[in-house]
Amino acid sequence: MKILFLSDDFPPASFGGAGISTYELAIGMKKAGHEVFVITTCRKESEAGEQNYDSLKIFKIASDYPARWRAYVSLYNRPVVLKLEDILKRVKPDIVHANNIHHYLSYRSLKIAKKYAKVVITFRDAMSFSFGKLMTRKYLESLDAKVTWLDHLKQAKLRWNPFRNLIVKYYLGYVDQKFAVSYALKKALEQNGITNVEVIHTGIDLREYSLSSREHNKKTIFFAGRLNDAKGAGVVEKSFEIVKQEMSEAELRTAGTGGKWLNREEMKQAYADSNLVLVPSVCFDAFPRIVIEAMALGRPVISTPYGGAKEIIEDGVTGYIIDPFKTDELAEKIIDLLKNPDKAEEFGRAGRERVKTQFNLDEKVKQYLFYYKNCASCP
Length: 379
Prior knowledge:
Radius of gyration: 21 Å
Number of helices: 15
CATH class of the largest domain: Alpha Beta
CATH superfamily of the largest domain: Glycogen Phosphorylase B
Number of domains: 2
Distance between the termini: 17 Å
CATH architecture of the largest domain: 3-Layer(aba) Sandwich
CATH topology of the largest domain: Rossmann fold
Low-confidence stretches: none
Number of strands: 15
Helix content: 40-55%
Order of helices and strands: EHEEEHHEHEHHHEHEEHEEEHEHEHEHHH
Structural class: alpha/beta
Strand content: 15-25%
């Protein structure tokens, strides 16, 4: 079977969560014996063209434009779509699997892909119905992800396109099968009129996560998210102040400062060198990859109910799910795990076993292939 993946970002140019997850799924399909291609984007024309990366044939299409036009260009990026169609004609795929396409490849690519193959899409965030991070007051208070035109206007301001979501739904009509990476995302999509969605959680290859700590007798907390309020940076700062009052030896580390971020292998080592990992998002975080990566390396994780983390973490068994706005409670859970290394180790072992049984990449590949074959056999 010829499988062609669409993703705005993809390694080695980008190692964002969605890009890495798409890459690993593509590699899994390749190992399963299928012919795999990738269409992705880059910002500079000099970087565009064809290349091979880790046995994958990758086509890069250059595209860059001012962010103020995103609500329009993300629907139909004509220069990119024309080049995308040329590649489709050459590859002649059986399945086109779209992932994050809402910045550069554009939703129009779904309609074009349907002319040449069966089309599936995996939603990995809220961008199909939201203009950005979903963190409305209604959602944060009641987990109701339904957004109104007023929510969109407040979020997008002068960048608002009142027809955006209607056009997104129109293009989704060309998709044969829709997937979400969590039940939380499936529910949010349904609340915003995107239905008939199946759930396949992100999987990882546990064999790539076997590092051990290089440090001993330290009390290290690792905050692996970006340093912004949506990812909980402010929450972490306030909680850590409380932790330091009781445990002066505690140390907080982040994934990067001054514009320099840890690469993929450095991130793995940072997980291994920590006692626990924090993912205290205060926005809808569909399926935070950080959680399964940390658990794969045997580290307990403290996260929030906003999004899919609660589907990964077994509260009180592999980590904790807490209200991130209750900084005293977050600090309490951090102190609990730092003061009780045996409990933290037990949580870590349970977490790694949970990744092995519930978020195994090989099993996720099989699930997708089942749907691919069903789609391919339908008229």
